[in-house]
Amino acid sequence: MSLYSLNDVSYFKLNNEINRPVNGQIPLHKDKEALAAFLKENVEPNTKTFSSIKEKVDFLIEEDYLEEEFLAKYSSEFIEQLYTFLDEQQFTFKSFMAAYKFYSQYALKTNDGAYYLESYEDRVAFNALYFADGNEELALALADEMIHQRYQPATPSFLNAGRKRRGELVSCFLIQLTDDMNSIGRGINSALQLSRIGGGVGITLSNLREAGAPIKGYEGAASGVMPVMKLFEDSFSYSNQLGQRQGAGVVYLNVFHPDIMAFLSAKKENADEKIRVKTLSLGVLVPDKFYELARKNEDMYLFSPYSVEREYGQPFSYIDITEKYDELVQNPRIRKTKIKARELENELSKLQQESGYPYIINVDTANRANPVAGKIIMSNLCSEILQVQEPSAINGKQEYEVLGTDISCNLGSTNIVNLMDSPDFGRSVRTMTRALTYVTDASDIDVVPSIQNGNSLNHTIGLGAMGLHTYFAKNQMEYGSKDSLEFTDIYFMLLNYWTLMESNQIAKERNESFHNFEQSKYADGSYFTPYIEADYQPKSAKVKALFEGIHIPTGDDWKALSEAIQKDGLYHQNRLAVAPNGSISYINDTSASLHPITRLIEERQEKKIGKIYYPAAHLSNDTIGYYKSAYDMDMRKVIDVYATAQRHIDQGMSMTLFMRSDIPEGLYEWKTTTKQTTRDLNILRHYAFHKGIKSIYYVRTFTDDAEEIGSNDCESCVI
User: Fold this and answer.
1) What transmembrane ranges does the database entry give (predicted)?
2) 20 to 30 A from 73, CA-CA: which of 377, 503, 596, 645?
């Protein structure tokens, strides 16, 4: 029997029965039955077996499935020892969805796709051996973190580590364009190359002159950003990893760019085909000044990047619009157009209602919190990467006269539920930091020199988190409650502390810090003042019990860390970022990112299979009351949770807003009708801004006519 000839299997039917209440009860046991059936009917008969670990490893090397180089750094005896350790942990999947996702998307298969060559333990082993780079102690520590699902590398890393034929280990890329044809041409080439090797690509168009701007004295000659957007969309469609995945990209534009209205209209359903972008994502960079003008219902001026750059000698992205707004308005040499700020704000909300776009980057908020020298000018495909960049200068031969810095994202995630059970929280986080450090050290994207340069100078990583709502429900805390906010505050403070500790240790070992460390708030100690002066010891009895046995750094601990960092530096310019981590969270049997769940029994549409159902992790009679759907929740609670975590995260978070087209009565005090309006989204964006949120990812709107009858509708359900 091979994967090509699977028939008469029972696991899909069993899994589907979860969504059919029986006598008012959710039959969760059906998921366990589906899991057992999947392992018996699918995995066991279709896994290639070997007589020993050595035989398996030798086969995988000889048949070009695995790279030999990383395995050659270890003795056969140690690899056997590692496998013995993993076997002793007795890992088991906890849901059908977790096992199905792993074997369908992550497990190595034979070239003809007929047989599995890896178990979960194998993938963990190869990840641990690869990221430890010959360090046996680190390999065992990494294996320990991953087999207990305290640490989850990002999909590109987890999927590709050790494979002979693979994509890059990094998750995504950010590149910027300057206002000249050479930069645009180089940018398109970069997008083609980066899309080919994997990961989404973020591009900022803010520096490009607007439609109608002069070109070498020819008034009204420039075509603006719209044709460039279309060029990038076509590039991503073409460069799609041999058809295995759709190339993915996002373009960003400053809200004060004169082409902003045309930019937003490109995503509307009724847009002209000449300008409509179907697959490209849109993001808007929003300085503080826009919120002020919209709040006061004033006119706003849009400024020509061409004339701004001529006047200030810097690309538009690097000008502080909020600081210089009045100066720009009064300067007769700056081309400008006038619109109503409130009208633009409503256009943003209309488009978010219709398509979920654009992403919102509160760029001044990000820069105010930024502890390193330089300016953040954009974000990535999921809006959580916020790092400083420097522009490049490219000549007519497409050569770099000035090599700037662009960004590659090296991501991983803590599983909050499991990390809280770690025998040593700090050691776990330090081990994860080492794994991510290997990814940044091993990354060498030479096809895009600005990406390569940024990575080699700054060694950035992004450790995040998943499973926050699962943890709240498991411990009977309402999402957004006082206890939940206190827990979030301390948890992310701990991630910050221990990643700083390990980054300092690596800098000390290597006698190397990130570029311009000496100009950072880490180097002068000012970054640490709030931590030294604050008291992060748990206040409530509930939270105190949750952190029992976990060391909470005191002001003296932070002072000692500050002194160590001022003396020996930090290896990583950036350390923390919270990605959406949707697909990989199923394998971890936990809720995605920091979001509330959307359904008790989540429905996934698999391409050739149909619907698969995933019950919320740890769902029981004790937790069901704490698993309120995001669509029924006041989004200010979500913003409060994210804002609490954001205080400790040096980059950003992929925060999604979940709305209903018909909002439940009484959810928002300003509502006089249940129909969702642009005003609702305007108010929530302003609330997020005032709470210090750096970015808003999607706005997802649920329409009630899409509701499915099933366990989610059974309000009185028990398990």
Assistant:
1) none
2) 503
Q: Is residue 39 part of a domain?
A: no
* pLDDT digit string, tens, across residues 272-309: 777 789 899 999 999 999 999 999 999 999 999 999 99
Per-chain mean pLDDT for the chain: 93
Structure-token pair, residue 448: 């895009």
> Roughly how many angstroms between the first and final C-alpha of the chain, as a whole number?
36
User: 345, 384, 502, 602: which is the annotated catalytic residue?
Assistant: 384
In a domain, 262, yes or no: yes
Say yes or no: 268 and 379 in one domain.
yes
Query: C-alpha distances in angstroms, 124 versus 129, 149, 226, 464?
Result: 9, 10, 45, 19
In this structure, the answer to whether residues 490 and 555 fall within a common structural domain is yes
Burial class (CB in 10 A: 0-12, 13-18, 19+), 242: exposed
Question: Would you say residue 719 has pLDDT above 80?
Answer: no
The stretch 125-136 carries a mean pLDDT of: 98
Contact 566, 525 (CB under 8 A): yes
Q: Active site includes 23?
A: no
Last residue of a domain, one of 380, 406, 432: 406
555 and 430 in a common domain = yes
What is d(CA 99, CA 109) in angstroms, rounded to the nearest whole number?
15
Respond yes or no: is residue 382 known to be catalytic: yes
Which residue, chain included where needed, has tokens 């090397």? Answer: 61
The confidence score (pLDDT) of residue 364 equals 98
Determine what percent of the chain falls in helix, strand and coil, rounding each to the nearest 5. Answer: 45, 15, 40
**Do 290 and 202 share a structural domain?**
yes
The residue among 708 and 154 whose pLDDT is bigger is 154
From 460, 575, 431, select the one nearest 131 (Cα to Cα). Answer: 431
Domain that holds residue 484: 149-162+410-596
466 lies in the same domain as 355: no
CATH number for the domain harbouring residue 214: 3.20.70.20
* CB-based contact 302:339 (threshold 8 Å): yes
- Number of separate domains in the chain: 2
Quick one: 489 and 546 in the same domain? yes
Which one of 572, 596, 620 terminates a domain? 596
Residue 469 shares a structural domain with residue 588: yes
Q: Which entry of 19, 380, 415, 712 is annotated as an active-site residue?
A: 380
Q: What are phi and psi of 116, to 5 degrees?
A: -80, 140
Say yes or no: 247 and 391 in one domain. Answer: yes
How are beta strands 610-615 and 601-606 bridged, if at all? antiparallel
On whether residue 686 sits in a domain, the answer given is: no
Q: Is 717 a catalytic residue?
A: no
At residue 710, does pLDDT exceed 80? no
